Amino acid sequence: MTHKIAILGASGYTGAELIRLIATHPSMEIAALGANAKAGQSMATVYPHLRHLDLPDLVTADEIDFGAVDLCFCALPHKTSQEVIRELPRDLKIVDLSADFRLRDPAAYEKWYGNPHAAVEVQKEAVYGLTEFYRDEIRGARLVAGTGCNAATGQYALRPLISAGVIGLDDIILDMKCAVSGAGRAMKENLMHAELSEGYNAYAVGGTHRHLGEFDQEFSKLAGRPVEVQFTPHLMPVNRGILATTYVSGNPQEVYAALSETYADEPFLHVLPFGETPSTHHVRGSNFCHIGVTGDRKAGRAIVVVVLDNLTKGSSGQALQNANLMLGEEETAGLTLVPCFP
Ligand SMILES: NC(=O)C1=CN([C@@H]2O[C@H](COP(=O)(O)OP(=O)(O)OC[C@H]3O[C@@H](n4cnc5c(N)ncnc54)[C@H](OP(=O)(O)O)[C@@H]3O)[C@@H](O)[C@H]2O)C=CC1
Ligand SMILES: CC(=O)N[C@@H](CCC(=O)OP(=O)(O)O)C(=O)O
């Protein structure tokens, strides 16, 4: 059976990445591509690297017949996404890539995003989209909320350690380096080549990044008590990739055992031999996530380094993995691309 797919926000980076992945999917066909300012244009005009694919032109959402669609990916800016999804048919399967449906508590959403949620009833249906930890709920979900790309990276390092009780919960440090494509395609001054290249800066310093809402929600739920990690993201002058260096108190061998046991059967999560550290080069353009564990010269401290591609495992690859589950397909379909190296 071939599933008809719509992508809203197809002219953005994650939208284009979804098209790249779906192009090799054995049972998905792109029925409609939505955009805003670029509606009316062809995908070949907006993204010449997709020129060889036979794709519909970009249209506005109100031109799409959602009755003829089996699943819709929403790759829209947060806030816009909730306003759009609110108006879509209530029986349409949706994978949302934005931040709008990740936080279960409307007050937490307002705290981190600065505005009241405009679709609280729809939010109640949403399942958090970190595939490896919510598989069963995702299979039966109508609406799945894709995670933040930084939020996914940090959780792959820490969830097994919190669950296994092998680390201290009050001194976790998450130091994250994020590629510029994480900010999307819209032009911003600090993302211009002259201001970005050859430089490196921290942002959202002092515990202000909105992905802390996701960390708080998920880690506190796992631990059964409030957990607040220290998290600082840094903007890397590279196109794709996230690297998180996580500092925890605990026995490094126990940390290693918890991670390697939890992920032993996961198709996309690979724990490296103890002491090896991963590189963003080794996962680029793929749905893989590599995890390295080492001890520190300070006794009782461990370091966990995680890499993934923000546009693949951090957003569109995760979204496709979840869509496969929702549609009853093989979870890995369309996702077995080998990383692009060097
Ligand atoms: N980039 C990343 O690594 C990650 C992104 N995300 C999230 O995924 C979502 C998409 O991100 P990304 O692809 O990077 O963003 P982009 O800025 O690259 O793309 C945004 C898309 O949304 C469309 N759009 C903007 N405003 C409207 C509107 N008012 N109505 C309809 N469509 C609109 C744009 O259309 P047009 O160009 O035609 O105006 C474009 O297609 C965001 O919520 C982002 O936070 C999540 C994880 C990682
Ligand atoms: C480099 C950069 O700006 N990265 C983005 C993360 C992208 C992401 O995951 O965004 P959403 O949570 O909005 O979906 C950031 O840190 O805000």
From TrEMBL:
Residues 4-141 form the Semialdehyde dehydrogenase NAD-binding domain. GO terms for cellular component: cytoplasm. GO terms for molecular function: N-acetyl-gamma-glutamyl-phosphate reductase activity; NAD binding; NADP+ binding. Its EC number is 1.2.1.38. It catalyses: N-acetyl-L-glutamate 5-semialdehyde + phosphate + NADP(+) = N-acetyl-L-glutamyl 5-phosphate + NADPH + H(+). Its main location: cytoplasm. Pathway: Amino-acid biosynthesis; L-arginine biosynthesis; N(2)-acetyl-L-ornithine from L-glutamate: step 3/4. Keywords: Amino-acid biosynthesis, Arginine biosynthesis, Cytoplasm, NADP, Oxidoreductase. HAMAP family: ArgC_type1. This is N-acetyl-gamma-glutamyl-phosphate reductase. It comes from Primorskyibacter sedentarius.
